[in-house]
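mind reviewing this stuff:

——
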Amino acid sequence: MFCPVDAFHWTSYLGAMSIKPLIILPDPILRLGSKPVERVDAPLLKLADDMLETMYDAPGIGLAAIQVGEPLRMLVIDLAKEDETPAPQLFVNPEILATSDERSVYEEGCLSIPDYYAEVERPATVRVKYVDRDGKVMEMEADGLLATCLQHEIDHLDGVLFIDHISKLKRDMVVKKFKKLAKDRQPARMVG
C-alpha cells in the first residue's frame, strides 16, 4: 500500500528547503483547478521539498501545491507520527482510478482552514495512479487514513475543499467566519 521513500534522500535537502506561506480560506485561489505537471525536474522537486517543509512546520499530514499558491497537480503526504521516522510521499498528477462502495468517516482538518475540523464520509479504499519523484508512473491501492488523505488532497487540485462535503449550513458558517477573519486582518485605510 505505501510506497516507501528513502527518508535520507528527502531530509538531505533540509538546508535548501524553505517554508512557503499557506493560502487560507476565503482566498479564491483555493477554488482554482490545478494544471497537470509536464515533467518531473529539479524546480518541481525543489517545490515538493518546500511543500514538505511547509507541511511539517504547520504541522500537517498532507499538502497540495495549490495551498502554497502553485496551481499544479502535485501533493505531498507523510502519515508518520511524531515518534516515527518520516515517510514523505510525493504524488504528481494523481488520479483516482477506482473507489470502494464501502465508506469510512474521519475527522478532517485542513491547513488552509486552520483550527476547524469536521467528520467527512468518503470511500474507504481508493486506487490511485500518479507519477513519483523519479518520473515513473505508479499505481497504488490505499485504505484507512491514507485513502482519506489522498482524496482530501486530490480534491484540492480540483478546487474542492473538505467543507464542501459537510452540510450547507455548517459550510456557510465556516466561510462566514473566515471571511470575517480575513477582513479583520486587512490594515485600516487612512483617510486624507
In short: DSSP finds four helices and seven strands in the chain.
